[in-house]
Amino acid sequence: MGRGRKEVVAEPVDPTAWMLNNDVAEFILLHQKEVLYMCMLGYTFLHGMKIFKAAPKTAPVSYKLVSMILACTGGGILVPIFLNGIPVPLANDAYPIAILTSFAIHHYFPIIGEVVDLSPWVKACIIVFYECVRAKVVLTFTIAANSSIASSLFSFPLFGPIMCGTVAGCGGAFLPLNKGLDPISTTGMQPPMMTACMGATMLHLFLNTSMSEGIIDAKEKAHLHLALFFIATGIVSGLNLGAIKVMKE
Which of 2, 79, 233, 247 is deepest in the core (most CB within 10 A)? Predict the structure, then answer.
């Protein structure tokens, strides 16, 4: 009696599976290579807009190109060096291709950047692409640092991964290194710096503490929330939606 019966173990039900089981999440998490490459192009294009605006009109092409490379891959250069790894532009050929494509667009067709700057809707789309890539970069290097750095005072490395994630999300602002602290000397921390620090901190603490216990696909859901946070803050700062004009009587 009872021989041959197999106990059926019910799989745990995920009440928050709807977060990931939709097309919007698939896009934001950059699961498809086509979407990833498109967002990388938007990421480098937005950096190019900032570089070409800030560069002197008489600046040579080589100056603009190198500045754009450092701006786009600053965090991807510094953090791998910290972790004894290979910098992103050397390890992934897709980044140099996206950088060169965006540079060519800005150099030969500058009117495209002007049109994007004039259209809030188009600029918002570019910001979404930009922030999706930035969220992926912060997530990747925060987790990589957590795996590479040995724990000391706590059961997991605390400040090292947060610092690496922060630098990954805004390291380009400090390159070349002769800038020193000039990017924060007058206006303080810029929005990308603050959001990178906050995002890396929340991500790291969530994944390495009891907050993520029992959560199915915790990493993917943390990635989604991080990207949404970056997108929301990026649109607010990029379109100057947070500026309040006070009328004087």
Answer: 79
